[in-house]
Design a protein that fits this description.
Layout (H helix, E strand, L loop, with lengths): L6 E3 L5 E4 L5 E4 L14 H23 L6 E10 L7 E12 L4 H15 L1 H7 L3 E10 L1
Parallel strand pairs: 5-6
Antiparallel strand pairs: 1-2, 2-3, 4-5
Helix pairs in contact: 1-2, 1-3
Protein name: OsmC family peroxiredoxin
InterPro entries: KH_dom-like_a/b, OsmC/Ohr_fam, OsmC/Ohrsf
Pfam families: OsmC
């Protein structure tokens, strides 16, 4: 299986990129780098892809396990190298779960399955970065 994404220059430093779903997004850079700050930054977008991939796994697994949560957030941090080309050498993924009487054992299993088995973006990140994960439970 392959995916095709078309990224079209829209002038200045802005690009519009599509997705196999048919949706589009804008990519731009900061004003200090010649952009208009009107779109998502490419490297940060990679962190969104990582969180989105794992998050989709986790909610699907929790649904199959019939685990109830009231909210779920993933905070992802990337540390860039000093030299060019700059890339993330260390990435931290923090999973935050909210709810009453959270089933911590099942939630941990769902996250572990995503991190270790299902999330392809996580596997790609492991090729170039030290990836650290943590789970935080917030009982209402």
């Amino acid at each position: 299986m392959s995916h095709k994404v078309t990224t079209h220059w829209k002038g200045n430093s802005q690009f519009e990129s599509d997705n196999p779903s048919g949706k589009t997004l804008f990519i731009d850079t900061s004003e200090e780098h010649g952009g208009h700050n009107s779109g998502l930054r490419p490297k940060a977008l990679m962190l969104s892809s990582l969180a989105g991939c794992s998050g989709l796994d986790v909610v699907s697994i929790l649904d199959k396990m019939k685990v109830k949560i009231s909210d779920f957030r993933i905070d992802t941090y990337g540390e860039l190298t000093e030299e060019h080309p700059k890339y993330y050498h260390t990435v931290s993924v923090e999973y935050h779960f909210y709810g009453n009487h959270l089933d911590e054992k099942k939630i941990k299993k769902a996250v572990d399955l995503s991190v270790d088995k299902y999330c392809g973006v996580m596997e790609m990140f492991r090729k170039f970065a030290n990836v650290k994960t943590s789970i935080h439970y917030h009982n209402d």
